[in-house]
Structure formats: C-alpha cells, structure tokens
Amino acid sequence: MLDRILRMGKTMFEGEVIWLTSEQGGRTTGPPTADEYRATGYVPPHNVQDGLASFWLREFVPGQWRSPARAWWLAVENAGPQELRPGSVVVVTEGARPVAYFHVDEIRSGDA
Known about the structure:
Blueprint: H1 2-7, E1 12-19, E2 36-42, H2 48-51, E3 53-58, E4 66-73, E5 89-94, E6 97-108
Antiparallel strand pairs: 1-4, 1-6, 2-3, 2-5, 3-4, 5-6
C-alpha cells in the first residue's frame, strides 16, 4: 500500500495515533476495529473552519488506544494549512469533533 500511495504522488506520514476516550469527547465506540480509518483532520494552530481536510489513517492496531500508524491527506498537498513535518500533530475529527491525535515521526514523499 505504501508504494501505491507514493506512486500516486501522495506524501505518506508515519507516526502514532492516540484515540480519545468517550469521556474526552472521542468516539463512543472506542478505537476503530479495522486498520483503516477515513476521516478529516486539521493541523493546529489551524482549526475546523480554516484547515479541515480529508485525512486517512492505515496500518494501526485495531482496537488499541495508542498505536503506530501511517497516514496521508487525500485531496490536498502537504502544504499551507495542512503542512506536516516531523513533530507535527493532526487533530483527527469526525465532522468538527476531535476523536484522535496523530503525531508525525517521519515523512515519505511521492513523485508528484
């Protein structure tokens, strides 16, 4: 999958996903039970109003609150309000509600 995404010219991010509990405002059903999650996200200091974009997570451990993961922006480039670097955090959302944090450790660029 990584090779296919990179061949599409996308930038892949490797890091760690931390899911919020329902008490923290996260998903009421807990972490996803599949290793792929398609949602939206933004990079602080941006927010839902000025930085929200489609964000996909893959290869995390289903059902675990904290896990290594890979991710990428679906329709935007790694630039502007969505620019990520090692150390960046993406607030993963369902609509406007934060459900997880993705911490970026490494970036792999495609051929775009």
